[in-house]
Amino acid sequence: MSAAERVRDSRRSIGQKRRDVFPPAAVPRPASAVPAGNNDTAPRTEIVAGPPSKKIRGDEPVCGWCNKLGHTVRSCAGPPGEDGTIAACALHNAAHCQSECHDARDQWDLGQKYWWLVASRANLPPLQYHERWENIAWEWTERMGGQCSEALPFTADFCRAIPNYRFAEYDYDCPSLKPLGYEKRTSSVAAFREWWANA
Ligand SMILES: [Zn+2]
Ligand SMILES: [Zn+2]
């Protein structure tokens, strides 16, 4: 198998994994993955949701936010910064803030914003972004008629009060074993919508 074939193969399996956890119509993709003016012929199975992590030590990725091995910004549990958010880019697994990422800001449609900032951050501190994830989640759940990810990110307020030992104990292989905490108002779409409608 040639190097190009191997890349295509790994891309296909990444695309496949994402489809398992999110409706295909809303699978996000970077603009660079779609040839300009040729959208109709771009094969969907070749499209990936973001470039693979450039930071790799051995076989494992290195997180662009906390510098720990074995996960990327997308699933990073923190600890967050003083404002309760993670100011790094999940798309590139890099230290630049998500709202300062040229491939994200003003590029993402609602589905992509929902995927990166809400669905991928369930029960985790939110990524720092110029729009509130709560507004994005509200808009998306309106559009989907409530059919979406059951768990949501924690609010930044909640994250500022999480004790440090929780971040140290967090298990990336089994996040539900020792969760960072339990925030009732973001624990389900129904609870979130009731809270945010009155917030
Ligand atoms: Zn991390
Ligand atoms: Zn970026």
Task: Describe the structure in your own words.
- The chain is mainly α.
- It has one domain.
- Helices cover 30% and strands 2% of the residues.
- The radius of gyration is 17 Å and the shape is globular.
- The site of one zinc ion (ZN) has 6 residues, from loops.
Physical arrangement of strands within the biggest beta sheet: 1-2
Low-confidence stretches: 10-50
Q: From N to C, what is the helix and strand string?
A: HEEHHHHH
Largest sheet: 2 strands, antiparallel
* General form: globular
Report helical residue fraction: 25-40%
Q: What are the distinct ligands in this entry?
A: zinc ion
Short structural description:
The protein has about 200 residues and is an all-alpha fold. The chain has helices spanning about 5-20, 110-115, 135-145, 155-160, 165-170, 190-199, and strands spanning about 55, 60.
Notable characteristics:
mainly alpha, Znf_CCHC_sf, binds zinc ion, two-stranded antiparallel ribbon, 199 residues, 2 strands, 6 helices
